[in-house]
Amino acid sequence: MAPLDLKRLMAELERMFPIRDHNPSGRTPYVTYMLMAANIGIFLSYFGLMDDVREMNAFYYQWGMVPARLSVGDGFHTVISSMFVHGGFLHLAGNMLFLWVFGDNVEEELGHWTYLGFYLFSGVLAALAHYALGPNSTVPTVGASGAIAGVMGGYFLLFPKAKVDILIILVVIFKVLPIPAWIMMSVWFAMQFIGGIGSDANEAGVAYWAHAGGFIAGVLLVLPVWLKRGGPAFWQRTEGHPPHPEARYRIVESRIPKVPRR
Question: Is 112 a catalytic residue?
Answer without folding.
Answer: no
